[in-house]
Amino acid sequence: FHIGEREEKCIIEDIPSDTLVVGNYKVQRWDIHKHDFLESAPGLGMFVTVTSPTGEVQLSKLYGPQGTFSFTSYVSGEHIICFQSNSTRFAVIAGSKLRIHLDIRVGEHFLDESAIQAKDKVNEVHVRLEHLIEQIHHVTREQDYEREREEKFRKTSEETNSNILWWAVVQTLILISVGIWQIKSLRDFFISKKLV
User: Fold this and answer.
1) What are the UniProt keywords, alphabetically (predicted)?
2) Is 35 left (phi over 0), alpha (psi -120 to 50) or beta?
3) Each residue of 149-165: pLDDT tens digit?
């Protein structure tokens, strides 16, 4: 995505609780002379801020023009991840565009292939088995979180449908009572004028 040099850009990630989140990013600055983005932006860093659904700041750190950040979610819900450059130029001068390449991986644990190759075959199988068990636990947590969200959504939908039904009943009763009142008023009016 693209942002201005002094602009803050936030994204929202829906993350289950107790989940590791790893993000890799790279910043490129617009070059006016080449009319293209430079491969890197030396001297330019990024402030990365992560806010939990409860409003607590989980991560607030300055990184370089490219880097990796990670955090563990303690509460399930929508986490806000914000990026802002550390540019010190004035807003009038800092008109340069930045391109940010971002890769966010939720719940992944990476294997160090060089460490695995250095060990014998039994240890390699053991490490891969532990990795698979971690992935199974992550999938189970993800499914539990989705089940919880679906249950909350279903409960909200049922409450809304119930409210709509009662509102329709109340409207019908009001219409019937207004109709009866109008008929009675007209009848009394015609009787008083001796038209009936």
Assistant:
1) Endoplasmic reticulum, Membrane, Signal, Transmembrane, Transmembrane helix
2) left
3) 899 999 999 999 999 99
